[in-house]
Amino acid sequence: MSKTLLKKESLIRIEYVSEGEEWESALEKVRVELRKNITVKGYRKGHAPTREADKRIDIYELFNKAVDVIINKVYDDKIYKQLDVKKDRLFGQPDIKVISVSLDKLTLQFDFPVQPEVILGDYKKLKTKMPNFKLTSPDEEDAKQNLLARFMVTLDSEGPIKKGDIAIFDFIGKVNGEVFEHGSADDFELEIGSNTFIPGFEDQMIGLKKGETKDLVVTFPKDYHVDTLAGKPATFTVIIKQVKTKTYPEVNEDFVKQLNFPWIKSKKDFDEAVKLDATKNKLTSAVNEYVDTASIEVAKTSKMNINESLIHQEANRYMQDLVGKLKKQDVNLKEYLELTKTTAEGLEKQFAEQAKKNLSKIFTFGQIVADNKIELKDEEFDKEYQIFADLYNLPISTIKQYISTEKIADTLYRDKVAELLLKLNQPKVLEDYLKVKKEVEKFTKKQSETSKAFYEEMLKKSKEAKKETKEKK
């Protein structure tokens, strides 16, 4: 067995030879199974003499199954033990090949992709700028509506349709006076303003009431996926059958009490929580966008050799994700290719380019971390887990089942890299960033401490109640 690091290909190659008793044992194990399905004239299936049965065993099937036996036997105990995931910088899944096979010997080749050596481009003169992370009034209002949406109810309306309402209607679509395929439906439900229909369709429905009928004149986009309809004017006759209006609760002291959030005890607390929670989300989004965009920029001038198998694995993952999404929409890949006027080869090439770009970004980010000796301490992980534990009144062991250390590490590394890049490129922005970050951390700490105190008080009252009940008995 040999182990070799191939830097140019960014992989570790291990060759393993199976021969003698080990290989013969694997072959015999497979023969025993295959003999059960062999039929020889004059004998019942699977009961022919061994010599006669072996003459009829397909040699390729014998080798294929025996190879699987050996791989399953040696992979964990002999192959993977030769590697150190962290030290060897393993990344992705291994590629296993049969170099040669005969009745006497099997030679296997295990290629383990590794993170490539990266020579970074200049990241001290970035064109990438930190996105705006300061909260605006629309941001705050959106955050408030998102929270209130949890308590939103829809009520039947007799009034005219307005943006945000849900309309249920029948429609018949015609082009040049002729009904076209898939252009009609009954009891169709549509949120007005969602922009899911042809441009202009939803706007023309505004003002209609239940029971009313109207012809909507629209034009299909020039790039519409159905060639026979692209760019053509169409008339949709709609019959409004029902209108539902979204109704949100009024934010007052009674509503605040119903929320049952330990850190929100008044309308003032509610407004503060909405504002700071929205700030936290916008800050996180800005950091992620900044770090990703900056990493892509630096990757363009960096040097690295990404393992081809790794690119193929990543591209294949994109393909499987697409197939899964299409399946949920009752569309197969062939139909998708026809609709998008794309070939399978073109899509594979597109995914391969996307995979290479994404992997370059990942490895560039990792090299920035390594070159600047950015490390995470156990206390940082403990702090993050403790915050979640206090918020949800759950033991840290349970929290770890839902939030992996890898996820927390990614968040912490991104934050540290963002601060490094801002320090090098936008020092004034860094000052503002740290101020906002401090506000968010202060709010998070308040949430955590208030929740912890609340649950401790609840536990105390529960114990006292049990004690009182026991004494009465």
Automatic annotation (TrEMBL):
Consists of 3 domains; the N-terminus binds the ribosome, the middle domain has PPIase activity, while the C-terminus has intrinsic chaperone activity on its own. Involved in protein export. Acts as a chaperone by maintaining the newly synthesized protein in an open conformation. Functions as a peptidyl-prolyl cis-trans isomerase. Belongs to the FKBP-type PPIase family. Tig subfamily. One of its GO terms (biological process) is protein folding. One of its GO terms (cellular component) is cytoplasm. HAMAP family: Trigger_factor_Tig. Its EC number is 5.2.1.8. It catalyses: [protein]-peptidylproline (omega=180) = [protein]-peptidylproline (omega=0). Keywords: Cell cycle, Cell division, Chaperone, Cytoplasm, Isomerase, Rotamase. InterPro entries: PPIase_dom_sf (IPR046357), PPIase_FKBP_dom (IPR001179), Trig_fac (IPR005215), Trigger_fac_C (IPR008880), Trigger_fac_C_sf (IPR037041), Trigger_fac_ribosome-bd_bac (IPR008881), Trigger_fac_ribosome-bd_sf (IPR036611), Trigger_fact/SurA_dom_sf (IPR027304). It is an enzyme of class 5 (isomerase). It comes from Metamycoplasma subdolum. One of its GO terms (molecular function) is peptidyl-prolyl cis-trans isomerase activity. This is Trigger factor. It is found in: Cytoplasm. Residues 164-249 form the PPIase FKBP-type domain. NCBIfam families: tig.
